[in-house]
């Protein structure tokens, strides 16, 4: 009996060394390419050493055997998951390198802090935010294939933004900077007084941090898959259209022609107007921009009122031979009137003006 007690004591001493090795091995493997595989022989041999010491004791007290065995399996499964996660991240980094798109500063399944380095007032309720990836991220990019978005939340602490249930408030945004821009990322965000994240961001000072995760693929654009693209946006819903269309226009072999139908309350509310006008001037054969205002100023020559079937017919004529694709992004009531409401994260049934005009669910995408 004394011999069994000594064996069990040695097992208790062996277990801490194993517990220390498993997390350290997983963390190292998650941040750097492995030099010789997952090292499972090392993990299993360490587990075996502890198991031999415990075996004799278990023969004397079988009642605890089931519980200890279950915990051992749980520890093994957790270690495998950590190593598997590390392998996936290494492969993801290698894939980005092979594709020549640069290493992404964003992580799809973990929050990363970026530092606010510049804030520009864009208009009366919108600001342009510049976030740095830090000294270690000067050669990194945001990454992602258009059209992609990212999600943000406030850091932990006294000022953490939470909802009524105490959970972190998370919001999606589409960067206006190119996916391959190195060292930083730019967001154009309108402040909503009754919002959660936008008032918080509007109060941020240079040097503060915001938490980021992504990129999240929304729609994977392929050049020349349709002849004409119709982008209908309202308010801050313009940002995914900007990412998508600028990407297309910058592909020399892409012949897709675009029509942007952009609605706002007043002329001052039009986001990225200078950029859109410059693009329309630079690519007259590929991009036509039409602004729609609820409250037009004197002498306004653009469209007015709500976007309807007649508005779309007027600015986006097409023949039965044209292969078309429509994109919609804006306030939920606008999206619902044009293409039907989204079903959570799903597209939902196609309804509204676009369905009346003969579009199908295959050629309408709701951001």
TrEMBL record:
The protein's required cofactors: FAD
Signal peptide boundaries: none
Family: Belongs to the flavoprotein pyridine nucleotide cytochrome reductase family.
Subcellular location(s) of the protein: Mitochondrion outer membrane
Source species: Kwoniella shandongensis
Name the UniProt record assigns to this protein: cytochrome-b5 reductase
Membrane-protein topology: Single-pass membrane protein
GO MF term list: cytochrome-b5 reductase activity, acting on NADH
Chief location category: mitochondrion
Keywords of the record: FAD, Flavoprotein, Membrane, Mitochondrion, Mitochondrion outer membrane, NAD, Oxidoreductase, Transmembrane, Transmembrane helix
EC numbers, comma separated: 1.6.2.2
InterPro entries: CBR-like (IPR001834), Cbr1-like_FAD-bd_dom (IPR008333), FAD-bd_FR_type (IPR017927), FNR_nucleotide-bd (IPR039261), OxRdtase_FAD/NAD-bd (IPR001433), Riboflavin_synthase-like_b-brl (IPR017938)
Matching Pfam families: FAD_binding_6, NAD_binding_1
Binding residue positions for FAD: 171-173, 188, 190, 196-197, 239
The keyword DNA repair is assigned to this record: no
Gene Ontology cellular-component annotations: mitochondrial outer membrane
Classification via PANTHER family: NADH-CYTOCHROME B5 REDUCTASE, NADH-CYTOCHROME B5 REDUCTASE 2
């Amino acid at each position: 009996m004394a011999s069994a007690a000594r064996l069990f004591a040695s097992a208790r001493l062996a277990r801490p060394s194993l517990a220390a090795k498993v997390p350290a091995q997983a963390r190292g493997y998650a941040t750097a390419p492995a030099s010789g595989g997952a090292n499972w022989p090392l993990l299993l041999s360490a587990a075996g050493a502890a198991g031999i010491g415990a075996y004799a004791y278990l023969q004397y007290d079988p009642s605890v055997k089931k519980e200890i065995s279950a915990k051992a399996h749980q520890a093994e499964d957790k270690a495998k998951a950590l190593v598997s996660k590390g392998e996936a991240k290494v492969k993801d980094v290698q894939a980005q390198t092979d594709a020549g798109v640069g290493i992404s500063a964003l992580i799809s399944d973990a929050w990363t802090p970026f530092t606010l380095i510049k804030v520009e007032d864009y208009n009366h309720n919108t600001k342009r935010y510049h976030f740095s990836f830090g000294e270690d991220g000067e050669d990194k990019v945001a990454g992602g294939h258009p059209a992609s978005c990212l999600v943000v939340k406030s850091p932990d602490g006294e000022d953490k933004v939470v909802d009524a249930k105490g959970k972190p408030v998370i919001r999606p945004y589409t960067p206006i900077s190119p996916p391959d821009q190195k060292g930083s990322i730019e967001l154009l965000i309108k402040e909503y007084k009754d919002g959660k994240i936008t008032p918080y961001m509007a109060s941020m000072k240079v040097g503060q941090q915001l938490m980021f995760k992504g990129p999240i693929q929304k729609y994977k654009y392929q050049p020349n898959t349709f002849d004409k693209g119709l982008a209908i946006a309202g308010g801050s819903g313009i940002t995914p259209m900007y990412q998508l269309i600028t990407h297309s226009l910058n592909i020399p072999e892409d012949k897709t022609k675009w029509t942007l139908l952009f609605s706002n309350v007043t002329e001052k509310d039009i986001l990225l107007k200078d950029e859109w006008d410059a693009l329309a001037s630079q690519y007259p054969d590929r991009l036509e921009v039409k602004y729609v205002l609820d409250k037009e100023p004197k002498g306004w020559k653009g469209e007015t009122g709500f976007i309807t079937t007649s508005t779309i017919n007027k600015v986006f004529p097409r023949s039965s031979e044209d292969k078309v694709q429509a994109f919609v992004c804006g306030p939920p009531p606008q999206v619902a009137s044009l293409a039907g409401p989204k079903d959570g994260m799903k597209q939902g049934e196609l309804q509204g003006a676009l369905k009346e005009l003969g579009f199908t669910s295959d050629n309408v995408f709701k951001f």
